[in-house]
Amino acid sequence: MPRTIEATEAIRETGWRETSADLDAAIGGTPLILLRGPSELTGCRIYGKAEFMNPGGSVKDRAAAAIIEAAERDGSLKPGGTIVEGTAGNTGIGLTLVGNARGYKCVIVMPETQSREKIEFLRMIGADLRLVPAKPFKDPGNYVHVSRRLAEETGAVWANQFDNLANREGHRRTTAAELWRQTNGRLDAFTCACGTGGTLAGVALGLRDLAERDGKATPRIVLADPEGSALYSWVKTGELQMEGTSITEGIGQSRVPGNLEGIPIDDAERIPDPEALQQVFDLLIREGLSIGGSAGLNVAAAIRVARAMGPGHTIATILCDGGARYQSKLFNPDFLRERNLPTPPWLD
Ligand code: PMP
To answer: What is the ipTM of this complex?
Structure first.
């Protein structure tokens, strides 16, 4: 049976998706789209990887498939087994879909503050969903700790996406390789936000290896961080310091996840919500790209990096998921106005 990594390699070789016995062949191999407005604005070529096109609608399908494959390989996940995970939603969606395709049950622990659309979609696809109050990581009631305890108590497999290096390894082998091939090995910088760090770390490691293999300069790796996250200050000064808040979901951290440890990061940009939202709205209405808040933040960071590097550079980023997942928040003028955030002009 084809597995994600092999399937993605097959797409690379043939340019089209193989006939497959399961969902895996539909994960990855996403288009890299030239973002016209940001490119014209900066004189650079700014590309967004269309991860909203994955079957579960987000970049996290890749991590979910890689984590399940690794657990099958090491024997911890047995036929008919159960996977437990704490997630902002997208990893839960990926795990549940891949689990459905392969006969595993999924118990998903999620903070109740996440978008209604993700919660309803998880229920729709058959996840055993446990909503918990949003708590900081140091609190034992935090969703990550609840999921770990639940897995321990029930003897299920804990996906542990933050520290499970199968997550970044999946991105190293697929996302990074696709980006390098899609830019013909001419990539000057990559910007990406961090939830677990799997995408940023895997792409950073993969691009470094591929650039070295081809005798090219290693692309500059820049963390895109929302307000309220400690990673910006960690990259800049080595200290974890949090400041402000953000309505973006799935990104920002108060600690350094295992997937991010030891990863070469050249710089960081801290992007306030209005700047990220501007990209969400502009890309939708001018270029037909419906994206979520973290994708808008990634594009905003790519624009800043393009301006700093100067015209003529090629920069890639990740369009992590789609706008429909946040209809009740990012596209809800009442929600936005209550927070003094810009609203989409065509909805006002
Ligand atoms: N954007 C969204 C919408 C997400 O759900 C996530 C995952 N939590 C990310 C970005 C971050 O991806 P990663 O976990 O690979 O850092």
So the answer is: 0.99
